[in-house]
Amino acid sequence: MTTANTPNTHDLEKELLEFLEERTGTAWDADTDLVDAGGLSSLFAMQVVVHLEKTYAIAVRGADLRLDNFSTVRRMAELVDRLRVPAAGGRHG
């Protein structure tokens, strides 16, 4: 996926909701707490991390591996958006 084709936050949420529905057989809302609702175990959360890294060309490391970053689709989309932003002084374009 190239930078020019990266989805905006709304599209990202839609893609993640589709991914989760395919994997769990359940339709979710972007703000549903997936952990509390039983849709996200710690093992499945790691599968989601791999999916995010491969699909959006990001690296989820260290403090970003907290389960609360994956508790809702909205939080996952925010994490992806944050990790896609180039670091200050990094390459642009």
TrEMBL record:
Residues annotated as domain Carrier: 7-84
Source superkingdom: Bacteria
InterPro entries membership: ACP-like_sf, PP-bd_ACP
Listed name of the protein: Acyl carrier protein
